Fold this sequence. Notes:
Elements: H1 3-23, H2 25-31, H3 33-61, H4 69-98, H5 114-136, H6 151-154, H7 161-170, E1 190-194, E2 197-201, E3 206-210, H8 213-219, E4 225-229, E5 232-235, E6 239-245, E7 248-253, E8 258-260, H9 263-275, E9 279-281
Parallel strand pairs: 6-9
Antiparallel strand pairs: 1-2, 1-5, 2-3, 4-5, 6-7, 7-8
Amino acid sequence: MNWRYIAYFFGVPMTVAIYAGLNNWEMQNIAGLTPSLFFYLAHSMLPWWITCTLTTTTKLSLARWKPPWLIILLVGHTLGCIVVTFFSNWLTGIYEAAWPELEITGHIVPLMSAEFWVYWARAGVIWVGINFLFDRFFGLPLYRYVIPRGYEVKNGSGATHSSTAENWNNHPPGFIDRLPVSLSPDEVLAIKAEQHYIKVYTPQKDYMVLYRFSDAIRELDQALGLQVHRSFWVNTSAIESVQAKAKDFRIKLKTGAEIPVSGPYQGLVREHARTQRLSLRG
């Protein structure tokens, strides 16, 4: 399993649980360290998995309308809170019965009460924040309908240069035939959408071709490059450095050309820069 999935599905809830369990000194003194850690692990891991499952179910159920990513997260989170409330209250009651001196019945939350919505808001900030972090910075867009092109390459399909060249020779992109020169895979440095045209960046000069951008990137070998913006695709071998400022996130090609990187693709580009040890300037 990819380390991102391990970190997301296991690392996040375990970290939250261990932090909370080790910081509840009163429970440790009364019930002991192991029961305290188990209490928070149960309150963290199972609810996390339930919320992930319900968010995925929400995404699949609403696929016809394709609502924004944040809506998917909030609907899944709300459903998760409703289901988790019953489990959380049940587990809290068991601990209260076993160790009455804990006096934790105040943690039992009636469904749809004011306390429930406080819990919903607090847990929601954590849920959305962590998903934003994994989506934008760790390259794990779990709840999007449109996955930025190139995530599949980053997550493990590492084709060699020779296989890319072979694919290019056997199935070249259609726009190649419309260029006044013959190009190898490494010579297509980037592509930019220009209304009904595409601009093809090469080491020598740029060419304008009447061609759909979506068709061009679909026909290109995914091992060759990444889509980094709704209007830009880049050849990864042409990237010299990455400027990762929040309001000025861009790629610098070896030719000196600069390509903007939009929000949904920033995690992908950061990860590529790290794995390829490219200059990453914040």
